Request: fold
Amino acid sequence: MHDARILWLSSQPAPPERTFAAEGVATPGEALSRLAAAHFDALAACFPLGDWLPEELLEAVQQLDPGLPVFLSVPAARLADAARWTRLGAEDCLDAGFDTGDLAERIEAALECRRGRDLPAPAAAAEPWRKLLAGQSRAIQEVCHIVRLIGNRRCTVLITGETGTGKEMVARALHMAGSRAHLPMVSVNCGALPETLLEAELFGHVKGAFTGAVQSRTGRFEQANRGTIFLDEIGEMPLELQARLLRVLQEREFQRLGSSETIRVDVRVIAASNCDLERRVEEGLFREDLFYRLNVVPVHLPPLRDRPGDVPLLAHHFVEKVCRAEQIPMKKITREALDRLKQHSWPGNVRQLENAIEKAVVLSGSREILYPSDFPLPGRLRRLEAAPLSMPSQVALPEEGLDFEETVSGFERSILQQALRRTAGNKKRAADMLRLKRTTLAAKLRSLGATA
Reply:
């Protein structure tokens, strides 16, 4: 417990407790900035804290570090309030004037429980796909929920996200979670082949169908029969081929190139794209009917920079993976090194993190500990410490008064426009950024007449 780092959020100074190191901050904004910039084992928050409610603090903390033990001390809190805060993620609710020695014991118990949760649980055997989706952020938890719901269904899934976020891992998890897990999952990169070769790759061809077709070949759809086909970078598929793919999705049948024989297949289709398909539809580069046929169940993977709390779990996962593959003793990462990794922006996302871990493990030789110096990340890509959202705490009311509805609408319109600009017009990502449903965002845009 002597090594535990506690963030003490209170208008009063942190206590001189000998059993843990407490760093004191006075406002929730400061606390969130510190949580985004460094690792802490627990947060102790003593209310009142200005206009902040315990619910608001818990939600903000969950976004930054899911699973972080949060201890609340709220004067005159009722039992029903404590139960609600616990459901929202609070570890425990303390009485006013609590003893710091008692707090130390509760923190130690929470950390022991958290360490236990990091170990493989017996229930994990029932979900072998879960090892593919390392992370505890809300975004990853939502993806896992979707996998559990539809893993055993045949419905088409469209996975979106930046390059390197792990879209193929989600596809493999969906395949493993269903009854088709023992059958093949076939992957095709739609952006890696020219149109003529891609068509033959997907649907196969007979001998002599085109120059160079010296023998017949079974296509990927036929190879994936009764299993799953994963169409990566679907946004790069040529328009002419999109029409044929649409028919296959609707009818579950196709013909090989150069053949009139109809082949029927029972295949589950999972597609992925790192581009905004809705925008490509507007630009005439992607068929609208195909988009809706693919977008039956949408899954969006946010970039790693938006979920820094997942970095330590991913880092440990990749260290174990590399050490096992290289058949070398397991290595450990220091807390300072993990802090450095969390502060990086990771433009290449999870794939870049995995490469950095592999490089560090290999170049560290026989050393069993990985230090910050093992991760020479470019300075220009370092994450800035997250600052509290710059919002006016109060609006000056002029003597002559103001139009309340117009003022609030103008503020709301400004926030929506900023979100749309930051996401390059992607309404799904803008809605995620604002913690809104996409339909709610669309309704607000229509009512306010807001544009990107």
Remarks:
- The longest strand covers residues 268-273.
- Confidence is low (pLDDT under 50) at residues 116-124, 380-390.
